[in-house]
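G-protein coupled receptors family 1 profile domain-containing protein
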Amino acid sequence: MFEFLKSHMENIFQAIHAFESSVGCFVNALLIYVVLTKSPKQIQGYGLLIINFAVTDFLICVLNYMLMQRLIICGFAVIYISMGPCSKISTQLCFTIYVTKLHLYTHSIWLLLISFLYRYYVMIRSELSKYKIQFIIFLFYLPSLLSMGNIFISDGSEKEAREVLTECHPDYNITNRAVTGNISYLDVGAIYVVIHIVGMSIPIAIMIWIMRRKIIAKLGSNASSERSKRLQLQLLKALTFQSCIPIFYVLGSSGFAVQQFNIINNAAPQYIMYCVFILVPVLNPFSSFIFITPYRKYVISLFDRKSYKISVTQTTTQLNSSAINQSQSLSKH
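Structure:
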């Protein structure tokens, strides 16, 4: 069994990437449609933030399918082997897709903070116009955009990446593979990215926790209607659930750590890391589907309609079968 898994590991993880990416694309596309068509007037401003989340997560899932990446640590070098469709086109395309996907991950974290800040702002002031919301999102997008440029600067050539990987793992077959990488994550560009992704996650998490407490306190003292309070509480629950999902970034990063410190330095953590990361954009839409009532009711109605159609079809089939049997029985008599 172990030998079978070892020999077919690449195919297995390609299948996992394809499944996760497909599910992620579907649920995020569904969320975009639901927000555009089923949002109550009271949360249309916040709906714009949800759409930004969903579009970001949808793009991450598409790019993940194109990449299907494996990450290998070799000393201070980070090497990427892409197994997805981009590897059939060009190595540079794979690296460009990877950098784009990574900066979308960081933008998603900033969007979560914006969502908490916006919910509190609405409770003490009023809804912002869609143009102002988009402008704020753009301002928070700039650090992620800068990180994308820094990764490109710190990128090593394909030849260097292949040489480092061959020296580190001479037994790996990298013939006709898309091999890219950062030769050293200690240079200025790479350090900025590490600080942005890892370092900024902690203060952002603290800020989210502070804003959540402020929103709860405001809900208790707010003199608005019970209906409005229930809606605000639904949004808070959705955001709280969503703020827990990035724990998969921590779990995925363990694949980096166990390689860096030579705890486990084989194919398993190299393949698993990005399979875990992609769970974040796949699960994000469920925070809205579960906790925001208008969205939840619509999604449930879709399944109810499908169950109803299946039930009607089965009943019709049974009735037709019964009628045929009775007809045959009568003809015999």
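The chain has one domain: 10-317.
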